[in-house]
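User: I'm putting together notes for a lab meeting next week and I want to include a structural view of one of the chains we've been expressing. I don't have a solved structure, so I'd like a prediction I can at least talk through. The sequence is below, exactly as it appears in our construct file.
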Amino acid sequence: MSRKDGYQTKQKARVLDFLEQHPAQHITAAELLHALTENGTPMGSATVYRQLEKLEAQGLVRRYSLDDRGSACWQYAGAEAQSGGCMNHFHLKCTVCGTLFHLDCDHLHEIASHVAAEHGFCIDPSRTVFYGVCETCANAASEETE
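Assistant: Thanks for the context. Below is the predicted structure for the 146-residue chain, given as structure tokens.
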């Protein structure tokens, strides 16, 4: 296997192993760097970013933009990527705590179908993020105002 096609380094294996062990987690590069350090396998931030980009190019992880400044998080895609799992639902992003939630909602799929049929535009649900405040943060805010 050539370097370009997926040369396996120890760093890449460590990043992939961590993501495989946390398949439902959306993780930033900084959080991944911290977790790897905590697990006794520290590496530089440039290395983490480089390995995430390589894994994304191979389709093993998915990248989600968090804001318009380029912040992102990643999630293990693995076999789900081949079956279209994460590619078929929308996401919710809490602007308070930063959590990214999967949202598989028939109503949104109906809207996407309508937009395609009536407006000739195909929405990519895997790249569609709705911003707002999650229930936990909203409840905490309302408790603070009481």
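A couple of points you could mention at the meeting. The domain at 1-85 is CATH 1.10.10.10 (Arc Repressor Mutant, subunit A). Residues 1-5, 81-85 have pLDDT under 50 and may be disordered.

User: Perfect, that's what I needed.
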